[in-house]
Each structure stands twice: as C-alpha cells, then as structure tokens.
Write a structure and sequence with these properties.
This protein is of the alpha/beta class. Among the domains are: 307 residues, no CATH class; 72 residues, no CATH class; 297 residues, Rossmann fold (3-Layer(aba) Sandwich). Helices cover 41% and strands 13% of the residues. The protein is built from 41 helices and 28 strands. The strands form 7 sheets. The chain has a 9-stranded mixed sheet, with helices on both faces. The protein has a 6-stranded parallel sheet with strand order 25-24-23-26-27-28, sandwiched between helices. A 3-stranded antiparallel sheet has the order 2-1-3. Helix 19 crosses helix 22, helix 25 packs across helix 26 and helix 29 packs across helix 33.
C-alpha cells in the first residue's frame, strides 16, 4: 500500500547536524505559531498563553445547527455560531437523550432486539522498528459525532515512548489542528496544565486531518486550544517554505500519501488522500483511567444498542423522517421518485445496522475471509431483493399500503445499477447473495462505474450507444466512504535505492497517482443475520484543482487531473478498438485490483500480533475471469516493495492466497497485453513478471529440457508484438484454477491450457484445475421475479425452506401429474405473460397474444451465441406460413419470438445482426397473413429488471451456442427454474441441466463438441452442404425482402449471408465460423418438436414442473459452498441474534 503503511517513520538521527536542524525547526515553528496564535480567554500570563488549555465546561446545544458541543465554551465547532445563553445545558448524554421519548420496541421480524456493536477491540502490542504495528506510529480516530474524523499520525521522541503520553487527556473533538500536513510542537518553555504533556517533545508532531464531509463546513475553531485556525496554519505552511528547507527529515509526506524524499511541496489534497485506518483508537480507549469518560461513552452506546424497529408504524415514521429531513421534501410536494429514495433510506438504515454488526463479529471471531474480484456486477435493483432477504416484505407492504402506495410502484422507480454487462456480472451478483445467505465472511470488490457500459437505444433498427448515467438521481443504498481511499500509481519509473533499514530496494516513483475512494453496498443474506459488503472503487484525482493554471486562464488544464482520474471509473469496458481504449481498459483493471488488495491487506494487518505466515489462513482471493489477473503481480509488489516480505516468502503467500476462474475459451477473452504498453504504464509490474517468468522457465527447462512446452507455458508470447499472457500468469500464480461447467473444465484441461494441465499432473497436482458449475440465486430469480411460482412451491412444500435448500424442490415431483397443480401452474404462466404483454406494449408498442408460445433468447449479442441462426429460423417459419392456406394457418401454433442483448460497440457483425432482427420483425409483424401467428421483436437495453419480466413468462428459451464455445451460461438456469424448457445444443451447462432434469425436458440439436474439428476438416475438402430450406432463406435476404429499401442495409445483410456460403471456410473466420449452416436443419427439426409437445398442454405442464423441480444443483448456494470448501477454505460465521 503506497500509503503511510509503506514504512513507519524512521527515528531521528542522533547525529549532531540533524539535532541542530531539528532544534532550528522547532524554533522556527515556535516563532511562526507565536506570531499568529490566538490566545485563550483566560490566559493571564505569557506562560499560560503558551500552554495548551482545555477549558473545562459543560456541554451545550447550538441554537443554529443543533450540534452538541462538549468542549468549546463560546463558539460552535460546526457552524461557528456564538453560544446562546437561553439554550439548555447539561451533560452530553443528557442533551442527546433530552428529545421526545421514542419507544424502541423489539422488532417482530428475524432480527433480535439487542445489538452491542462496540465489541472489544484487541489492543496492538508494541512492534519493532519498521513494523507497521509499531506503537510509535499510530492513528487516532475521534469525534465521529461532529461530522469529521480527526486522524493524527504522531511521531514519538524516542524508541519505547508510548504515543498516548504525547497527547493530553481529553484531547477533544474540536481540535482540528491542520488543513493538510502541518508541523506543530507545544512550547517547551511553558508549563502544561495536563500531566501527560509535561515531557518535552524532541521531534515534531505530524498531523493529518482526514475530512468526513465538505471541507468548508467540518473544521471547527481551534482558538480555545491555543492553536491557530486551520486556514491560518495552512497559510503558514504554504507561504513559509523555510519551515521545510531547514529540516531535511528523512522523508516528507506528499499529496499522494507516499513517503518520497524528493517531494517537498504541499498541494491541495482531495479529502483523505491516503488511508489511515490501520491504527484506530476507539473512544473507549483509556476509559479505565477515566471512569467519567467511560460512563459517558456507555450512555452514548446505550442509545445505539437496539435495532430500528420493523413494525409498519415505525417504518412509516422512518419514511416520513427521511422524506422531510434527508430529502428536504414537504408534506405537499414530493414525487414517487422521492418516495422511492426515502424508502431506500429506511431500508439502508436497517442494512447498515446489520452490516456494521456483521463486520464487528467477523473481526471478533478472527475468521478467514474471502475476497471476490470482478470487473463487473450486474446486481439489478436493490430494494425488492433486500426487503425479501431481510424478511420485511409484509411490514413494508402494510406500511406503504396504509400510506396509499404500492411497493411494486416503488420498485419500478429504481434504476438498474449499470455496473455490469452480461452473464459474468450477473453471476458475480448471484455469488454475493449466496455468500451472505450462507453466512460466509466474503466481500466483493469492483469499480463504481458512473456510466456503465452504455444504454442501448434502437434507431432505424440499429443499435445506438447512449450514456447510461444511472447515478443521476443518486442511489440510496450505496454508502460513500471518503474516509477509505488508497493511492494508485500509474506510469512513472523504477529507481534503485535504499530503504529505511539501509537495504537495497527498487522504488516505483513518479507518474500519475489517483485516489480510489470506496463506496459500500450492503448485501443482506436470506434467513440469516449476516450482511456482507460489495465495495466499489471510484477514481478521484489526488490534486483537486490547479489554481495556478486557472489563474493563468488555462481553465481546461486546471481540471485536467480530475478528468484524467475520473476516466478510470467512468465506463465499463471502454471501446478497445484503439490503442487508447485498450490502455484505458488496462488502467481500469489495475486501478481496482490495486485498491482492493491494499484494502484487504490493511484489514489483515489490523490483527494484533499478525504474522505474514498466517496470511493464507486468513485471506482467500478469487479472480473472476482474466480482468483482475494483474493481481498476481500487484500482490507481489505490495508484499515485497511495501511490506518488505522476502521474495520467496511473498511468492509462496501469493500462490496460496490467489485463485482464478476461467469463464471462456474464446481467444479474445484470454487477455494479452503488449509488453510495451505495460512497461510504460506499470514498469515495476513488468519487472516482477519478468523475474517470475525467469524462475518459472528455469524450473521448466530443468524438468522438460528446451522444448516447445517451454514457449507454451511462458508468460510472454513472442511475435511481432511481444505480449504478456494474463491467463498464463493467473494459472502460474494461483492456488486453484476452476472452470464453470463440466464440459468447459475438460476443454480447459485438454484444449485451452493442455500444457499447464500436463505440468500439474507431472508435479503431482492434477486437482489444481477443478470444476465449479455455475448457478443462480433462487431468491431473486424465483421468489422476487416470479412471486406466483414462489407461492406455489411454498404451498405444496409447506414452508419456504426451499429458498435456502433447493433439494427440497424434489418434493414437487410427486405432484407433477396432479391436475390441480397443473391448473395453478398454467395460471402462474398466464400471470407472467400478462405482465410481459404490458412491458412490451410500454417498451415497443407491441401487442402480443397471451395464449401464444413465448420463445425468448436474451444474452450478449455474439456470433458464437448464434442469434443470427435464430433469426434465420424465424424467416424460415415466416416463409412456411406464407405458403399455407388460411385453413392450414389456423392449425399452426402461435409464437412470439423475443431476442435481446447488447453488442459491443466495436463489434460490427453483432450490430448487423441486431439490424437484421429488427428489419425482419418489421416485415413479419406487419404482414396481415402472419401477424397474428408469428411475431419477432428485439427488446432494447436488456438488463436485470427486464429479465425479471421476460424469464417468468417464457415457454421455451434458446441456448444455441456452437458446441464447445459457451463456458457455462446462467440464463438457461433461470429459465428452467421458472418452468421454461430449453432448445439448445450440448454445450456449457445445458449438458448438466439435461442430466438433472431429464432428456425429455430439453430439445437438443446440433453437433457435439468433439465433432467440430471433423466438420471443419470436411468443409475444407469441399463437403459442407447447405440445406434447401436455408438456401431459400438466403435467397429472400439477397432479394431484399428484409432490407426495407435501404441499400446500405441490403449490402450488409448480403455480406453476412455470403460469409456463411463460403463452404470451404466453415469452422474458420473466413467462412461459417460457428457452423450455423451445419446445425440449421436439426434446429428446424427441434422447433417442430417444440410445437408438437406444446400442443399437449398436460404433457407440457408436467415437463415444466419436472424441470423446475430438479434444479437444486444450479443454485449458487451449492456453487459457493463448493468454492468455500474446495478452493477458499472459508467457514460460515453466522452472526448471533444478540451480540
């Protein structure tokens, strides 16, 4: 961590020259402070004026802002108003409790009434020099109650001096000593009123103020303490450079929070420009010596010992309070959006109680923790899921119904957080839900994107990317944490030098430094008291504003640092078609990985008497795909360069703590970064990777000799552009590597990384690569998305235990032929289709027949997922209908085909497929002969909230990727859990779903994975026939039947068809890369089988019940349990009801 944790301040040298300089500094500071100090009112002599006086006075409540002032006798520390003599006086506890009495009734729901959140905090033992636990370097956190954190980094005069001796007892909440970084020394010539300050300080006290809110409001007056005001002290520090030139202390704190002897300037820093959370002194510390303080703190704690009550009346009062006092709304003027935000704050109050207590419990029990690193989280709307997991559905529903509002209306006001794109992000969100539900001490880490990927709009049938500014109205569920920030360095250079211990080391210096600021998102578990956290990082500039540039009329340059920093967390997956776009992606990935690793290491070293050998026993990190795999090099850098752990020990710790999930076999997803780019951006990491690779290769050569396996296993890929293979780095630096479906894991072993698997087997570690089949959370995808189905399961099974143990759904199988259940099941589908019809009418102005078969394919648009083939089938079905007589058409099953998903902004062919789907839909939907029998629509801006409407209404869903290309897929699981059947290939999780649910519940078609290579080989020889039905479809496209008179679109559609017709190029990028032509005939046959089966409603209902009741394996509860047992070694830590 490039922060104060990098290394403790070295002791002052005993050399005479240094001593003289320190004395000169002290005199200079004395002189400056004497010149501007404001004396206390009761100073009668020079000595008393120089003394640090803490007036002893009673607490009083400010008439202007209402703040309870405990120490300042005349001036409010918050608003600076003069104390009014008419205000009540009394002790702090009396004032805090003097308002209208409020009944704290025990909540009737799952949570118990008592919450003791202030658990005993283990005291740190005094460490050795150079140890971050050194008691001579510590941080004090004070005065949360007055909207600021005061953190002091105190440098003691000599080894062994207790830091507490350097501060006066009662050093209180309004002592805001400096704006940024200041040097201050109490006058030695004066007498001190407090015993603890009698000892003369031989070294300066370094003070850093960490703000909690707007810096223009939080600083109080310091006059009562004999100190200059913060603004005046700042002026001294800025305008008196001699104070620094006189003293070359070993190091000076700079704006980056990095100890760098080459930098001496003071810039205006962003709130907290580094984190000082590692050595926190609690309000209770020292209470044994001060019984009066202990009594006061216990009074304060007692006010916080109960949970917010959850009865409807209390919820209503809390809602009204937030509506007026948090959102500044009046009784007569607020909108539904305001109501949603106020309701969200009501819910957040309860989430925060649980989150704080859960974290305190984890620390008390000293549990091993899991950390999930993912570039995206498609978390969906918070409110409904949180209410369900907290078991507050009934009281919230009653509370808002009595106020004339429906919960469902409030749910619809929430904007989907644009933090993810597809299955990868949604899987991560499901994992977080299960981690909390299983009471596992695990957190998620990611990026707080301001604009997400993009908001998809359809204009003239084409995808248009629009900014998705999802935080425009604010998010009531996220908690900004300006007190938790970490510096992240980019670019710069690596220099050789000596560390504080005189040892040779490499130092990464210069370049740009941005601050990663934390935003916490509570993740509640279901049927548990645990609430975990998703911590997202926002990029902020280290230097807020360049006043010199602004004064010189260079207005753009004045805010350039802010713009450059905020680019890092602006957009998910920036367009990587350009060099600059690829560079931004790498910067994003390193930014969130570095901040996350600094944060988790900070948590580890807070433990008393920690040992680095214990790190694997307390930390497990999961890298979700290749995006966060730079973590291997960054973990090494932090351990070796910052924590000074020896190289070999650091590598052992890294390979025991990190784990890697591979999500795809697509070559473009296995990231490779040019060495030139990474050397310029992350020079120290390239050095570390080079050293790791050198040692790795030497070991391989000793084992295998200099053969082709060496090049395959190297981290570096040679070629015209030398690249770093992040997949290879991840496997080499991980304890475990996992695939996400049985077939996918076998492909990893045999095709994607065969040489790594051979090495693992040869070294006796064949179980390094394991399978963890994906899943989805039934809480969101059944209980919240489809409450009618959830009610059916609960009714027939007798309880809602199936929501946490889906094996209990097997009990539904004995009812699968029950006509009564069939009737309820069909009614459930009818309800879902009615909701879908309303959604399509509102979104697309499309009316559908609710008795039609609903056929849905919603996922990221990609050629391997074969939305193109689905569209070609719809054209074929349309052609067949056009050939029929009216009487024949009456016998055809009505069908509504819905396709949705986003195409990457630079993916030309995917965007052409969207255009083709929209054009075909316009022709078919407006044809009077077929419009009532077949409809095709593209659903724009696919997102979680849209999926929650689409999935419950489906009869069939399409999961038709070419065999061997889909790692797992999770949308297939969601559809089946909601009673939808699958048309699919033997690919990804389809195979395992078929095994669990039965062959008759799935309509399988297409080639198998092991047949793909043979098909491509035959095509190369000229044997790749095109079915006549597909040829007719191609001809219709070439004839312009779906071009709508657009020459450009016609040419583009023909190019798609021509590529498929290059029969010699099948299986390659020159032709039918994903075997659409080969699989089309069997796809048509599978669809005919769907129509025939659906015609028998009783049979269809039976299959639907059978499939939905057999999905226990695909709950993320099972998946996460396996991760915890096999990979992480993390045990459940259920928080008790009363702490």
């Amino acid at each position: 961590m490039d922060s104060v944790l990098k290394e403790p301040l070295a002791e002052p040298s005993a050399a005479d020259e240094t001593t003289q300089r320190l004395e000169a500094l002290e005199k200079a500071i004395d002189k400056e402070v004497d010149r501007i100090s404001v004396r206390t009112d009761d100073a009668s002599t020079e000595d008393e004026g120089d003394a640090l006086l803490l007036p002893e006075c009673e607490a009083w409540s400010c008439a202007q802002c209402g703040l309870i002032n405990e120490v300042c006798p005349e001036i409010c520390v918050l608003c600076e108003a003069t104390r009014s003599p008419t205000r009540r006086r009394g002790s702090l506890a009396q004032l805090a409790s003097s308002g209208a009495a409020r009944s704290k009734v025990p909540p009737p729901m799952r949570h118990g009434p008592v919450r003791r959140t202030f658990l005993e905090v283990p005291q740190r033992s005094q460490g050795s020099a150079g140890d971050p636990s050194d008691s001579r370097v510590c941080c004090y956190r004070m005065a949360d109650c007055i909207s600021m954190d005061l953190a002091l980094l105190v440098r003691g005069p000599a080894a062994g001096t207790q830091t507490e001796e350097l501060l006066p007892k009662g050093f209180g909440c309004s002592a805001a000593i400096a704006w940024n970084v200041g040097y201050l020394r109490p006058r030695a010539r004066s007498g001190y009123r407090h015993e603890a300050m009698k000892e003369k300080l031989l070294a300066p006290v370094i003070v850093s103020v960490i703000e909690r809110s707007d810096h223009s409001q939080v600083f109080g007056r310091c006059r009562d303490f004999g100190f200059p005001s913060p603004l005046r002290l700042k002026q001294i520090l800025v305008h008196c450079p001699r104070l620094f030139s006189l003293t070359p202390l070993p190091v000076i704190m700079t704006t980056a929070g990095v100890w760098d002897p080459k930098q001496h300037g003071i810039d205006m820093k962003r709130k907290s420009s580094f984190s000082l959370l590692d050595h926190i002194k609690r309000p209770m510390d020292g209470a044994d010596e001060n019984p009066d303080q202990k009594e006061k703190m216990e009074k304060l704690w007692k006010l916080m010992e109960t949970y917010e009550p959850n009865d409807p009346e209390s919820i209503q009062k809390s809602f009204a309070r937030h509506l007026e006092y948090s959102l500044a709304c009046t009784r007569f003027n607020f909108t539904m959006q305001d109501a949603y935000r106020a309701a969200g704050l009501v819910l957040r109050d309860r989430l925060l109680e649980s989150l704080n207590d859960t974290n305190a419990y984890y620390r008390k029990m000293d549990v091993k923790r899991g950390y999930y690193l993912s570039a995206e989280y498609l978390i969906g709307r918070h409110m409904q899921n949180a209410i369900a997991n907290l078991d507050l559905e009934q009281p919230f529903k009653e509370a808002f119904h009595a106020l004339g509002m429906q919960l469902e209306d409030l749910f619809h006001e929430e904007v989907d957080p644009a933090l993810g794109n597809g299955g990868l992000g949604r899987l991560a969100a499901c994992f977080l839900d299960s981690m909390a539900t299983l009471s596992l001490p695990c957190w998620g880490y990611g990026i707080r994107y301001s604009y997400g990927m993009f908001k998809q709009d359809i204009q003239n049938g084409r995808q248009v990317e629009m900014p998705d500014f999802w935080i425009g109205d604010g998010c009531p569920f996220e908690i900004p944490r300006p007190d938790i920030t970490y510096p992240v360095r980019l670019y710069g250079e690596v220099q050789e030098g000596l560390n504080a211990q005189g040892e040779w080391c490499l130092n990464w210096v210069g370049g740009d430094i941005v601050q990663a600021m934390a935003y916490d998102n509570p993740i509640p578990g279901f049927d548990t008291y645990n609430t975990n956290n998703l911590r997202l990082w926002r990029a902020c500039p280290t230097k807020e504003f360049d006043l010199d540039q602004y004064s010189a009329a260079n207005f753009t340059d004045a805010v350039e640092a802010r713009r450059k920093a905020e680019d890092l967390s602006a957009v998910l997956y920036p367009n990587d078609a350009s060099y600059e776009g690829r560079e931004l992606r790498l910067r994003q990935q390193y930014f969130f990985v570095s901040a996350s690793l600094q944060d988790l290491l900070r948590e580890f070293i807070k433990r008393p008497n920690y040992k680095w050998s214990e790190l694997p026993e307390k930390v497990a990190v999961q890298m979700n795909d290749t995006h966060p795999t730079i973590a291997v090099a960054e973990f090494m850098r932090l351990l070796v360069d910052v924590m000074h752990v020896p190289w070999d020990e650091a590598w052992e710790l890294t390979t025991k703590c990190l784990n890697y999930t591979n999500h795809t076999v697509m070559p473009e997803a296995l990231e490779k970064w040019p060495v030139e780019m990474m050397t310029r951006m992350l020079p120290r990491h390239v050095q570390i990777i080079g050293e790791l690779n050198l040692r790795w290769i030497n070991g391989l050569v000793a084992k295998y000799g200099d053969g082709p396996i060496i090049a395959a296993l190297s981290i570096f890929e040679e070629g015209d552009v030398k690249k770093i293979r992040m997949g290879n780095l991840a496997i080499m630096g991980s304890n475990k590597v996992n695939g996400v479906a049985a077939l996918h894991t076998e492909i990893i072993k045999k095709e994607t990384f065969p040489d790594f698997y051979k090495y693992c087997c040869d070294t006796g570690a064949p179980d390094k690569i394991v399978n963890m089949t994906n899943g989805v959370t039934p809480r969101r995808w059944v209980h919240c998305a489809n409450p009618a189905l959830s009610a059916i399961f609960t009714k027939y099974l007798g309880s809602h235990e199936w929501l946490t143990d889906m094996t209990k759904l097997k009990g539904m199988l004995k009812f699968k032929e029950d006509p009564k259940l069939h009737a309820e099941w069909m009614e459930m589908k009818k309800t879902a289709k009615k909701k879908l019809a309303g959604f399509l009418k509102e979104t697309l102005d499309l009316e559908i027949d609710q008795d039609a078969l609903i056929d849905i394919q919603i996922k990221r648009i990609h050629e391997y997922k074969r939305q193109f083939m689905n569209c070609l089938y719809v054209i074929h079905r349309y052609q067949q209908l056009k050939k029929m007589s009216p009487a024949e058409r009456e016998k055809v099953q009505k069908r509504v085909v819905l396709i949705g998903g986003k195409a990457a902004s630079a993916y030309v062919n995917a965007k052409l497929i969207i255009k083709l789907i929209n054009n075909v839909g316009k022709v078919i939907n407006n044809d009077p002969d077929t419009g009532k029998l077949l409809k095709l629509a593209f659903v724009p801006n696919y997102r979680v909230s849209a999926a929650e409407v689409l999935i419950p209404a489906s009869d069939i869903s399409e999961h038709i990727s070419t065999a061997g290309t889909e790692a797992s897929g999770t949308s297939n699981m969601k559809f089946v859990m909601n009673g939808g059947l699958i048309v699919g290939t033997m690919d990804g999780a389809n195979i395992e779903i078929r095994e669990e649910c039965g062959e008759d519940t799935m309509f399988i078609f297409g080639c198998l994975e092991h047949e793909v290579a043979g098909i491509a080989a035959k095509a190369k020889e000229g044997h790749y026939p095109i079915d006549s039905r597909l040829q007719a479809v191609f001809q219709a496209i070439r004839n312009g039947e779906f071009s709508k008179g657009e020459p450009e679109a016609h040419a583009e559609f023909c190019s798609l068809v021509d590529k498929l017709c290059n029969t010699h190029g099948a299986g390659t990028w020159d032709g039918d890369r994903y075997l659409v032509v080969h699989d089309f005939p069997s796809f048509v046959d599978a669809q005919a089988k769907v129509d025939a089966t659906y015609a028998d409603k009783a049979k269809w209902c039976k299959l639907s019940i059978q499939a939905a009741s057999s999905m226990a394996k695909f709950s993320t509860d099972r998946t996460i349990s396996e991760y915890a047992d096999v990979i992480w070694g993390v045990k459940p830590a259920p928080r008790p009801m009363e702490m």
